[in-house]
Each structure stands twice: as C-alpha cells, then as structure tokens.
Amino acid sequence: MSNRRDFLKGTLGASSLLAVGGVVPEFLASAARAAEQGEAKKDTVLVVIELTGGNDGLNTVVPYGDDEYAKARPTLAFAKKEVLKLDDYHGLHPRMQQMKQLYDQKKLAVIQGVGYPNPDRSHFESMDIWQLADPKRAGASGWLARSIPGMTIKDAGVPGMYLGDDRLPVAMQGADGGVISLADRASFRLQLTGNAGPRKALIQDLNTGDDAKADLAAFVRKRQLQTYTSLQKIEDALREAGSAPDNGGGEFINGRFVRNNPNDLTTLSGKLGLIGRMIQKNLGTRIYYVQLGGFDTHSGQSADHAKLLGDLSSAVGNFFTALHGEHAERVALMTYSEFGRRVKENGSRGTDHGSGSCMFLAGTQVVGGLVGKHPSMTDLTDGDIKYHTDFRRVYATILDNWLGVDSKGVLGDTFEKLPLIDRKKKAPAGGPGPGGGAGPGGGPPVFVPMPVEKP
C-alpha cells in the first residue's frame, strides 16, 4: 500500500508543483490566503552564483605581497596601492568595494586554493564536475537537485529556482523535486523533475476511500494550495520588479552614457533584486541559482574582468543591503567558477585556462575571513597553482550546516567540513551595518577560520 514517504520519494520529491490553470477557483485562492496566516517560514536559503568561463582567481583575491605575482603578470598585476587590502599579503580586486565592506563586517568568507584532483581545463567537462560534484562525472543528477528531496521545505511549492534563459544548469537537473526556471518578467515556465505517470496513478489510487490514502489526498490538496501561493508570490515579485523606478545608474560605453535599469532581469543585480523580493515575501524556496558569464578572459582581460567583478560586487552588496531582519539571517550566498587561470599572463594580455581558484561565501551567519592559505606562486603544476581544498568540502559544509541535508547522501562520500557557518551569529542591531560578526555575548564566533600562512 502506498504511504506518504513512498509518495514523496517516488513521485513528488519535496514538492508537487501540480499544474495551476489560468483561472483559479475562489475557494482555492481563499484557502491559500488563509494558509499564509500560519507559521512563519524559518528555513535557510542558499543563493548560488556561477561565474561562467573560468574566473581568474589570482586577480580576484590578489597575492600582492608576493613578488612572483608581479613577475608573472607584467601588465595584469595590481600594485600594493591599488588593491583593497585584506592583510599584508592578500587584497581584493579594486572594483570589489562592496564585497570588501562585507569582509570588513565579517560577513564574507574568502576560501582559497579550491579545486579537485586531476583538474580538467575544458569548460564543459570541468563545469560538469563542479555541478555533478563528481570528478569522475559518473553521476547523472546535479548536487543541488539531489539535495532537494532531503530538505525540510515547510510551505513551498517551489523548492529550487533558476533565474536565466539558458537550459537548466546540470546542478539543478536530475532528481525528484520541483525546480522552476524563470526567464523574464513577462513569463516563466515550470521545468519539473520526477515521473508524471506514477504521480497520476497514485493520485487516482488515493480516491479509494482508505484512511491512509485519504491522508495522502489531503497532502496533495495542501501541495496544490502551496503551489498556487508560490506562483502568486512570484507573480507579485515580478510585477514589483517591473514597476520599480529606474534609480539612474549608468556607465560610459563606447563614448556615450548608457542608463542601466537596476531591476533589469538580464543583469545579475536585477536577478538578485528579484530573489531578495521573493525571500522577503516568504516564498519558501530554499535554493536560487543564477549565472554571470564572460570570465573566459584570454585577451584584453583587464577591462573585462574589472567590469565583471564590479558587477558581481555591487550586485552582492546591494542584495544584502536590501535584506532586513530575519530575512538577512536566513540567507547565504556562494560563488564558484569551473576553474581559475594560469599564473603567467599570455601574449594577448589575458590568461589561459588553469585550475585551482577561490570561492566566496557571504551572509550574516557566515564566519568571515580568509579560509586556508594562498597557494604557492612557485610550486606549480603545468603552470597552475595547486589546490589544497576540495570543493566538495565547501559543498558538504553548506549541505550539513546550512541546508540541513545529509552531505554523504548527496555527495556519496564523507568530506571534512570547513569553519564557514555559525548559526548562533546574529546581525548587529539596526540592520546590516559594520560591527556584526561576534558570537554570543559579544565574544568570538563559534568557529575560527583556518590560519593563513604565506607560501
């Protein structure tokens, strides 16, 4: 006989996302509104930013205190006076002012030397490795998709969401559970995982009068209400984004001033702004995924990389500035790229495909600071820095300590966690200003970042 666990595992994963027609019966709308008066959502949220193309980690987290850095990059290296200093060895790219503010507020972890064994320098293969969380690429489902069935999702009909007009990223593909792909303000489409046939058969089987099956039928009806509510919140957030005023931002492009709409959903800032609205509406979605492309900087890297990192920094900074109270405490944001770049610049004033790089994790409950030492600039493998932290350690930490999902079940193995999350840490009174980051009673955070050692 079917039971609730079989129903969840075999057909719906963590949510049903049953079809909602264009006209919703009033009784359904009324029930959904009433459900909103229930328990407040407290689930944590993960926002993932994919830096597509292979971000140059050495000009993102700059080892300005190492003479070998300047020797390897005669035109691309930053001088000591240019970087945003983290200490007497490390600095951030000069355009990353808002992320530097998060670092100073102890809300940004800079994870160094991240990679995996036997690195692949192909964009497609390496991106698959990161998104499958499998250097052997033996699996078929993405690591985020695999995490959804094991997640607590209190009232959401939408456990995961991808904002972008490309195909669903591999990280979000292949496991039971609903994922929405939202392309623009005017329309969005549902990309559902799971098997429709068994779902239909089970729903028909629920109408037999058995008490246990009646309970399952009630569960299906609840999921329908949750789905309707979720879709309404998404529509409301899109409507607000579409009607939000242009704040007058802009830049000079090809000699003329071009005005930018900060709510444009083709930009990272616009996407993160929409995500912030949905979080503050208590949508209940646990995972949001966005992309920022253009990091394949084989030539003329300086200007392009500066713009990309400036866009990243301002979008992330504005995103956290707009979150308030408990919403800010519920959110962690992670960046990653498929690989870094070579230590030496090439003859086109760019950099070629490399291996190990850096990751960022931001949030009020993130233990801010440098995590791990900067890789040596002289002990190289085929012109690349050597990684010392497997990226799956970062994933395991986020799964276990933030999303509340068993990392071994998702990653297929046990990985030592990093000191990245302190769930007892609170944002300072009055919002996201400087001074946050102390643990209970004003003392140090529960976790202490790994010591930084100069190579």
Protein model, in words:
The chain is α/β, with parallel strands linked by helices and 455 residues long. It contains 13 helices and 15 strands. Strands 1, 5, 6, 7, 8, 11, 12, 13, 14 and 15 form a ten-stranded mixed sheet that branches. A three-stranded antiparallel sheet has the order 2-4-3, with no helix packed on it. Strands 9-10 form a two-stranded antiparallel ribbon. The longest helix is centred in the middle third of the chain and has 33 residues, at 211-243. The radius of gyration is 23 Å and the shape is globular.
Q: Helices and strands in order, then pairings?
A:
Layout: H1 4-12, H2 26-35, E1 45-51, E2 61-62, H3 67-72, E3 84-85, E4 91-92, H4 97-104, E5 108-115, H5 123-132, H6 143-147, E6 160-163, E7 178-182, E8 189-192, H7 196-205, H8 211-243, E9 249-253, E10 256-260, H9 268-280, E11 287-292, H10 301-322, H11 325-329, E12 331-337, E13 357-362, E14 369-371, E15 389-390, H12 391-403, H13 407-411
Parallel strand pairs: 1-11, 1-12, 5-14, 5-15, 6-7, 6-11
Antiparallel strand pairs: 2-4, 3-4, 5-13, 7-8, 9-10, 12-13
Helix pairs in contact: 1-7, 2-8, 4-10, 8-9, 9-10
Sum up the structure in keywords.
455 residues; disordered N terminus; Alkaline Phosphatase, subunit A; disordered C terminus; three-stranded antiparallel β-sheet; ten-stranded mixed β-sheet; 33% helix
